[in-house]
Amino acid sequence: MRQHSHPPSPLRYLAPRPAWQLAGLWLITGLLCWLALLPPVLAQGVSDSARSAEAALPPVAEVFLHNRRVVAFRSDQLGDSATERAALAQQAMTEAMAAGGPGVVTRSDSGDAVRFDIDGRAVFFLTADDLAGTGQAGSLQAAAHQVQRRLQQAVAEHREMRDLRHIGTALGYSLSASLAAWALLWALWRGHRWLQVQLLGLVRGRESVFTTYLQYARSALRGLTTAVTWALGLLLAELWLTFVLRQFAYTRPWGERSTHWLLDVAGSFASAIAGAVPGLLVAVIIFVLARIVTRANTLFMQRVTRGEIRLGWLDADTAEPTRRLSNVVVWLFALAMAYPYLPGANSDAFKGVSVLAGLMLSLGASGVIGQAMSGFSLMYSRSLRVGEYVKIGDTEGTVTHLGLFATRIHTGLGEEVSLPNAVIFSQPVRNFSRLVADGGFVLHTAVTIGYNTPWRQVHAMLLEAARRTPGVAQEPAPYVVQTALSDFYVEYRLCAQGNRAAARSRAEAMSQLHAHVLDVFNENGVQIMSPHYLSDPSEAQVVPPGDTWAAPAPQSPLKPET
Questions:
Q1: CATH code for the part of the protein at 385-431
Q2: CB neighbourhood size of 141 (10 A)
């Protein structure tokens, strides 16, 4: 049966991604919180004179009626402080509303004050001194008119709270608004998915154009559509909440303040952005210049590393650490120069975060700084290079990576050992490659032979074993030295160098050399006396010639060369 291949549907890009959705939710929530908190942070650049002027203003005592702000007192009257006047006004309004009158609010002039009545009962007085610091000094009548309007609205809302018919109507409107908001949110989410499918399908149809950045384009489209959907959803939720709060007399002031707060935040945010643009532009220019300088420095140091440029004070081994250090210095200098121009750099919150970050770095980065300094010391001392064969403590192998914090070594036995630079810097390093040309390494081994064997014979046997080993270089020629005359034997050490035919691992080359040493000594009937003995054995401890390939040993490639 013939099968037809269908192009994958764009819906495959919308497969469930719980982790991604959770991360996106946290990201958007954090962004919205940052947007809400940024204007107050950016707006903390208030001058000292303005703050001192605010501190000189008299205290304010506000009067509320069911969450509705009616009036604010700032002066004393007839021996009563502003706070006491507010408490008396609150009590008078409560008694007037409890009387059950029609709720008529009137005002009348009384010298330098304005008297306010509810159903003919005096509730409070507003004086010209109460307008100090409000920008309305000298316009007592205008302020009194606003107070009367707010008091009348508060009285009307008090009566509305006891009207069951109005409460039922408000509940009906709220329920209808909730259903409409839910339907709009559902449509918004469905529209978001449909738009993602269409946009991803459009990108899929242009794969020949977006081959290099196809995955980035998909991620950008998902992020953009998700951000727009969340923004519209939050705006819709704010409109629904404001509408519902405005339906009830008790919560209506909250709904009014919600709208004003949103507008104030948007205005503060826009003004903060406009004020931060010049400084932010300067900071961007500083960072761009730092990027250009570090890029030029990187290209220059790369040419030094490749040997294209030779300097007396800089070589290929120290070019890489010099590049890192100079780039760090450039970026730190750029950050110090751009710091005053960053938005909110002078705010208390920014300063507090800077102090906290500095404290955390000073407490937790001492070990990291020590490791980094050890790494730079190893690089500038040139005691290690990548590709060299070294022995550090009990670890022996080829250096594959020399970093700021750790050095990686391949032992040749299927292991990779990572050593902290501080550990390497505190102990001797034996380098088997530094004195050998053409990237080779030193091969040496020691044997202990009894005093009854002529030393010239031992020299000849060790040199023969070195000649048979393919990885041992004949130029410079291997040599043998007596390193110790011990109580029971003489210690001989064979010193040679590995050539280009040597095994990739020094461990493999040493294994072949040891195998040939054993073969040569067995062939000549000389036993190796290591570690030592108490008396001469009755027979020499060597492998008979006929047992060299005893089963199950296969025919080894380590045969004597003719």
A1: 2.30.30.60
A2: 9
Q: How many angstroms separate the Cα of 322 from the Cα of each of 148, 307, 393, 523?
A: 76, 15, 28, 56
| CB-based contacts of 188, cutoff 8 Å, min separation 6 | 229, 232, 233, 236
- 420 within 8 A of 406, measured Cβ to Cβ: yes
* Overall fold of domain 442-547: Alpha-Beta Plaits (3.30.70)
Q: How many helices (H) and strands (E) does the chain have?
A: 13, 13
Tell how strand 442-449 and strand 429-431 pair up.
unpaired
CA dist., res. 322 & res. 433, Å (int): 24
DSSP state of 476: S
Q: 438: which DSSP letter?
A: T
Q: For the chain, give the number of residues.
A: 562
First-to-last alpha carbon distance for the chain, in angstroms, is 68
Distance CA(101)–CA(37), nearest Å, equals: 46
The DSSP element (H or E) to which 497 belongs, if any, is: strand 490-497
pTM of the predicted model over 0.70 = no
Distance CA 50, CA 447 (A): 90
- Report helix, strand or coil for 128: helix
List the 395-402 sheet strands across, edge first: 416-420, 406-410, 395-402, 389-392, 429-431
Summarised one tens digit per residue, pLDDT across range 332-369 is 888 888 888 877 667 676 777 777 777 766 665 566 66
Which among 249, 255, 191 is positioned nearest to 225, based on CA atoms? 191
Q: Tell me whether the CATH fold assigned to 385-431 matches the one assigned to 442-547.
A: no
- The full DSSP string for 47-115 is -HHHHHHHHHSPP-EEEEETTEEEEEE-S-BTTB-HHHHHHHHHHHHHHHHHTT----EEEEEETTEEE
Q: What's the number of CA atoms in the CB half-sphere (13 Å) around residue 518?
A: 13
Tokens encoding 81: 């402080």
Sequence ranges of the domains in the chain: 57-160, 164-250, 281-364, 385-431, 442-547
For residue 288, name the pLDDT band (cuts at 50, 70, 90).
very high
